[in-house]
Amino acid sequence: MSHLDLSGCKKRKRGERVFKFKTFGQRGYPAEFNGSFLQNVRELLEFGQVETHLCGAMTSWSFQLEVFRHPSLHVYLFVIEEPIELSIHHHCQHCQYIGTVNPKVNSNESSSGWGHHMICNKKYHFLLPSKNTIHACLSHINTDSPCKSNLIGLQGHTMHGVFHTNGFGHLLCINGLETGSDLAGYQIMEFWDRLCTGLGARKVSFKDTSQKKGMDLRLLHAVAYGKPWFGRWDYAFGRGSFGINVEMYESAIKALQNVPLSLLAHHLDACKKDILILLSRYQIVSGHSLITLGDLFHFMLELKFQVPKDSSTLYSSQYPGLVLSDTSCRWSPKRVEMAIRVVIQALKRAELRWVSRQEVRDAARAYIGDTGLLDFVLKSLGNHIVGKYFVRRCLNPVTKVLEYCLEDISREFPKQEEFLMVNNETKLKPQQKVTRVQLMKDIFNLYKNVLIEHKKMTNTAGFSTISVATRIILDTKYFFKECGGELGSKSVLNKSKLYCAVIWSSRDIGGALSSIKAVTPYECFILGNNATFYELKFEVQKTFREIYLGLRNFVAESITNFNPRGTDLVFEMVRPGGKITFEGIEGQREIVNGGIYEGVMSNFVVDCGCGTKYDDGERMICCDICEVWQHTRCVQIPNGDEIPNIFLCKTCEQDILHFPSLP
What we know:
InterPro entries: MS1-like_ubiquitin, WHD_PTC1, Zinc_finger_PHD-type_CS, Znf_FYVE_PHD, Znf_MS1-like, Znf_PHD, Znf_PHD-finger, Znf_RING/FYVE/PHD. This protein is an alpha+beta fold. The protein contains 17 helices and 28 strands. The protein is 28% helix and 22% strand.
């Protein structure tokens, strides 16, 4: 029976050590973390409270973490050791889908993906359980009833990450405030990031399907910041589905970020008038010119941190609005207002037709002699709302000349008050105010109408790019981070530290050595200054046998490009912090269903029209004649539809059509 008392995680158990949540995992707290990943994990677990029966036969530890002292808030971190013998699946599906499977690669660094990694003997799960998941598990323990799903099998944790003993890991989920957690998403990510860095993890992957208020964060933040939300912690492109590569992904982000707002304002149809209002509103609030779609999303998301969370509180722009907020304006507000009224009157006389910039300028010069002032107003006035009018500005695609048009929006928006009309004259409002509720609503409307529901605009020049780029970004879900843990601490050169890797040859069924060799990542070894090569060889064999299932019987025979005697001192021949590689044979192989690599080598053939040549984790269908697999989406089968019992690819359909008819 577990010793835990988790009634809201508010009370600490007497005599149990409590750690600070905000610094847990940093180097030196609670451990020094100066060795290899596996050594660091074991050092950390010495500070944990051993739990029994929490995950069946698996060993587990708990750490009580103090988030706040006043008011008191504590959470529990669980670390669960999963031996390969107790794993339901020996092969890691997360390693399979982060990249392509290629076990013949000679170096982990030169390969794409993690499918070529050897299966490790153990995994370590790091869990911040939610109130629901921990009580669901403990209810079985405290009633002595069998728990069908142990803690690592439950869904809905506040955080769940898993590491292989070689230092490669996967962040499986984080769930913040919106799911009822006491921790915000950024707090959870900072905690996870400290763990990865402190423990000396090598690389960590994550499948990003996170949403907030119905918006995919990997799309929203890509447009606003040029990277996903997890990019704040240096997560970068890992692999795209449907044949997407990193060049396509980066180009898609740039394409969306650089969409001109003037193009949106010109081509949005009548049913999108609310977006026109939105564009004008945030041009005013920003106090500076927002040129592109990326500028607008970036400003709106940054503004969210300035607007109070109280929905009744208004955010007031510190600028007078519109062109008066431009720092390059050298004219008085009164003169600018007069010039705006003259330009509006000139556009009114055009009877709502498109007129060139020069034509508007010439008409206004009859009343405003300062051409510099007119040029400034014409530049700043485009795609803004003045009174009951929306001033459109666009580049004529034929003549390549800027044109203006005045559109009456009073019927669609009778309560529009971006500017005041006093005695039939346009008066600039002194401030533009936005509530947090209005801001979040505007972000969602812009996201929905421009990025997602853009079918009505795809036939317009330039808008087809939005559709394609959006699809590319949404099809990119796998990201990873280089944690830099392979070489341990980089701050101090430890003279007793050495890094060793293994090149080994496997045996075939008949016992003969294979010509295929594999290389492991480097592991950190801390040796005494008088250590010999015989002692080093012993430690290398012991360590790599502990880490990898396929090396449980590994025998080190020699050192690459090096031939020392066993009694030679290591640090007389190798500088501290150096790298050496041992060569050897695997000995008697452990029998594993599907091989000793994380990637399962399947016999089916993938050849999809999108360019995919391997299983990328998306739904696929197999042709019943040629047995080639393709994405269901690529063969026009919606994700919500069932897979048909019989399916023929286009190639086989065409071949059948060309069969000679029977007599």
